[in-house]
Amino acid sequence: AGMTSTTLEEPSVQAIAQAHGKSAAQVMLRWVAQQGIATQPRTMQPAHMEENLDVFDWELTAAEMESLSGMPQCNVTRGNPYAEGDPNGGARHGNVVGITAHC
Length: 103
What we know:
The protein has helices at 11-20, 24-34, 46-53, 62-69, and strands at residues 75-77, 100-102. It is mainly alpha-helical. It has a two-stranded antiparallel ribbon with strand order 1-2. Residues 95-102 have low confidence and may be disordered.
């Protein structure tokens, strides 16, 4: 649906990152934090840990927040979300099998 393979590759995210001298990941973390939403970015790389913490002393503009919030959304479910034997799965939800993606 005209989207890149990851949000970090979206041209609008890249442009905002460049404008602030930050990474695309930092822009997305700041977007979440600026909305007051808790997040738990995980990494085993010390450099990424430092980068993840460097999102609190700057802000995205209202226009940047609107741009990020208006990006196309993709809801993807990979594989059958029902565990084998789950009474909610199987025949009641015969359309939930294999890999499904809705964009």
